[in-house]
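pinging the channel bc i need a second pair of eyes. not urgent but kinda urgent?? the chain im working w is below, pasted from the shared doc
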Amino acid sequence: MAVKDSNGNELQDGDSVQVIKDLKVKGSSTTLKQGKVFKNIRLTSSEAEVECREGKGTLVLKTCFLKKA
């Protein structure tokens, strides 16, 4: 299973990714701003999603809104 970002670059566990547009977080009033970098991502069982750590919590983000940093 090859997980790819919005530009077609292949993602691996531990990569850093950058958000390419402002995203509203479901169930929260938080917004992820364009340009935010997440380090040490983890791949999930779905090739369209990755897990990222935000503070003490974990976010699942769609790869179509991310680019490899």
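so Strands lie at 17-19, 23-24, 31-32, 37-38, 42-43, 49-54, 57-62, 66-68. and The chain has no helices and eight strands. — does that match what u expected or am i reading it wrong
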